[in-house]
Amino acid sequence: MSTAWIDRQVLVTVGTGGVGKTTVAAALGLLGAAAGKRTLVVTIDPARRLADALGTGPLDHEPRPVPQAALAAAGVRARGALFATMLDTQRTFDDLVRRYAPDDETRERVFANPIYQHLTDALAGSREYSAMEQLHRLHGQGEWDLIVLDTPPAQHALDFLDAPRRLSGFLESQLLRVLLRPALAVGRRGFRLFRSGSQFALRVIERVTGLEFLRAISEFLFAFESMLGGFSERARAVETLLRDERTGFVLVVGPDAVQVRRAHEFWDRLARERIHLVGAVQNRVRRWPAREGPPSHDSAAQDEACVALRKALETVGAGGEADRMARELARMAARYASLAARDLALRRELSRALPVGEAEVRTIPLFAEDVHALEGLRRMAEALAR
Ligand SMILES: Nc1ncnc2c1ncn2[C@@H]1O[C@H](COP(=O)(O)OP(=O)(O)O)[C@@H](O)[C@H]1O
Ligand SMILES: [Mg+2]
Q1: Probe ligand 1: pick from 371, 372, 378, 382, max atoms within 8 Å of CB?
Q2: E strands of the chain, at which residues?
Q3: Å from CA of 371 to ligand 1 middle
Q4: Model pLDDT for residues 181-220, shown as the tens digit of each residue
């Protein structure tokens, strides 16, 4: 059970929400551990049962080991070790503030500021920013042969790449400063009345939100300003790490034509960003069990199958119900065959969309149940392995 994908030092799973990014990240981690690597999976929003199944105890900011006994019980012979951690956005920002605050007073002012306290939910992109920051921190520990980074749920697979830049851009933005200049004065020498007509908007904001809000923003920006340099420098270091040739991105898609069609956009964007793609995972694929693949729609074949099914059902004592059951089963099989045919066509389309000679597509079947135990993860890992 192995794959060339895990030869990278960092793997990042990306894709739109709900496609299986977190589960695929965990399965890749399992492959890393099986191959003898000291592997860390950084999850963002693991389903509760998945987190429980790892047996690490509550997942948090620090890496926790997945017990070897749990791996063995699920049939994984791990020559290496598997660790997992969960992103804690607030904690990540707090660590950054501690690190970059020029003095104790600034640090305490930022921590006490209500805007800062809501920063992590208030600002779009703060989760993505802290995911990258966490990657940077853990990579810097130099303890890991492989880090698999899961990414936050996004509407669009590329949101992950944009968000941190959007956030640091927002914090640094001149526009924000100009807009808030009158409010910034609050921090210095009390609130100044807005006079000019161009400040009408702020007057409205103030009326709606109250003076306290403006005061809090202004104080926050004052205190935060001294740390912006540090934040931006870290963001650049992470960008370098993401572009390193030892880092690879894995696009996860569902059996969804729109997602497959967008794969093109994704490769183009990665290429422009000089980020390396290792491949794509088509998840929740409906496979036709027979080697020759799903039959094309053919009513004569369906009738023939119905007759055979009815006979089989009669022999197991289905009696008068046999005919109705046979029809129902044949109808279900035909429906499944058409889904399997569609998934196969999408897989081919996805392969064609991949850059030639580099990345490849792996498929994971749709399992009858959610993948929430190590056993299910192992099956997923087997599907990913080549
Ligand atoms: N191949 C699959 N078969 C069945 N269930 C799956 C499969 N892949 C993922 N799941 C389930 O789908 C749900 C969403 O997966 P998750 O990895 O949390 O998605 P994401 O991180 O992309 O939002 C989870 O409950 C997971 O167990
Ligand atoms: Mg997830």
Answers
A1: 371
A2: 10-14, 38-43, 64-65, 81-86, 146-149, 247-253, 277-285, 360-365
A3: 6
A4: 554 444 444 344 334 444 555 566 666 566 667 777 777 7
